[in-house]
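## Example pair
The file below holds two records. Each record gives the amino-acid sequence first, followed by its structure token line.
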Amino acid sequence: MIIPWQRIADVHARTVDTMAAALLFAAFLFGSEISMPHRAQPDPGRTIALGAVACGTLLLWQRTRPRLAVAVTTCCVAAAGALGHLITPLLLGPLLLALYRLAVSTGRRTTRRFFLAALALIVPTALFLDPVAHPWVMKTISPVVWLLFPVVTGSLVRLQRRYVDAVQARAEYAERGREEEARHRVVEERVRIARELHDVVAHHLALANAQAGTAAHLARTHPDQVQRLLDDLAGTTSSALRELKATVGLLRHTDDADAPLAPSPGLGQLPELTEACASAGLDVRVALEGTARPLSPGVDLTAYRIVQEALTNVTRHAGARTAQVRLRFGRDRLTITVTDDGTAVPSATAEGRGFGLIGMRERARSVGGALQAGHRPEGGFQVTTRLPLYSDTPAPRERTP
């Protein structure tokens, strides 16, 4: 916190310096008139010259060259003491201000050295060159006490300013950290939503395309089965629309806490997924090894999306007629293996560079798991992922349309 008079002094520095120099010059002249009774006064001309030099130095260099200002004012005060003036606070005024500026603008070591040097010059000069023989207390203890005051005050002001600067720097750093964190969260949310949209669109469009192709083929050979496939096609597109609305709704109503939420998909919906694949001509068999255990929401959603994407790739690219999903529950991990008996492998996925495989790997890593994909020696393709049963990653909320 900056004291108001400090703020005013910083804004109107030149005016304040001029007024301070004039007041200190008047105080210097007034202090030179103070002396012991029945003692002769020194030459006033020399006193005026010393005061003018000290205050002029303050006016010119107290802010830009504080060391020079302290040196000149110290010499002026010592010369005044040698002329026979009593060392009073009024006579020390220019040196007090110079020491204050030095303490504010430099370090503690520099201030201490100039303070001791000023005392080493003023006190011996007043003790041994004073022609008036003033009391020794006024020549020793008084200068020490009065010169110590601006040193302590200036050091406190310097520490206060450093503290304020440190607080402001920490606040700016914290603000930049919050902005970086906000941008990072925005990027993560965009990637997550893009992944959700890819899974929804790729899966349902692949099924719809396969169902439409099968219906077109059966229309020429088995017209009686076309109606069932068309009903399945309508269900697939309707499901795609619902999931798209739910995902896009997250972008439109992020602050609407009262909007109804639909549960995130999980492994419990595998029967519906296998039925949809069956309507597209892909026979999916699900095998369970071990005792099924509850999963955390993030892992459950990740497992479902990986199986969905793997089956979508089988439907679109592998040319397979059957696929197998094996769920093996271990003590602390779930291993999911999706295999097919297909032979066709497009270039986008043959080397694991397709967006589908990239998305599956990112999903597995986001909950602390890992994914491997590649060709089987006996033919077909295999996707294997290992996921922890529990993860701190929450499942995203999906809003009902």
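Second record, same layout:
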Amino acid sequence: MLVLFGYVVVLASVFGGFAMMGGQFGALYQPVELLMIAGAGIGAFVVGNDSKAIKATLKGLPKLLHGSKHDKALYMELMALLYVLLSKGRKDGMMALEMDVDDPLNSPIFAQYPMILGDAPIVEFLTDYLRLIVSGNMNPFEIESLMDHEIDTYRHEAEVPAHSLSKVGDALPAFGIVAAVMGVVHALASADLPPSQMGELIAHAMVGTFLGILMAYGFVSPLASLIEHHVAESTKPYQCIKVTLLANLNGYAPQLAVEFGRKVLYSTERPSFTELDDHVRQVKSR
């Protein structure tokens, strides 16, 4: 909803200011120039991206209307799950996790954490590396390197829509100039008109530059920036899992390993040491 609110503020500020200076809204109504700019932007987007990037962008845009799901409650569940799994592995041996890792949907441990279980990519990332740890054939350095590569791949893939929209946003002011030039050409081709009518045609032509800049910096480029913020937030669960598992592999107790994971979270979602400690104690009591 913040996206829609921001758009309302942009439109109210620009057109409200125009009205306050005595501008006539009829002069800004240029559907042909809007068609030229928007059509050129969409065409450039299609030409500059493959089908995977186009589908990812169209699929990701509706999600921007909702807030981020990566809040403190999700991270508390994630760290509690990590603590329970690592405690079981420390007490009964890592092989005791094999059933939970191979079939998390039917695992009594995962069933206690529905927010995590409902996020398939996080569950897949966690179970994949627990499976490697259970196998016992890889050292911590190899697992850390593999985790880094996977997180980098995920980030690169998730940022494709942001890069695509950013390039379109950069191109829209130029398309606005193209529309304005076309309007000026039309005006000059009618040089025999009275000065008042000629001035009106020139004014209409200049609307193209205005629309291109407004669409770029008021609408499209902010979406690209917002996607980048969402991608940065969405990588934090993976980094939390990575740091926690590596701490456990290096010999730290599950409660301390979870504390390592807590430290990589953003301050706005990171639970305090006391909150996490109390939560872990509650998990222990269960």
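Notes on the second record: The radius of gyration is 27 Å. Residues 76-137+235-285 form one domain.
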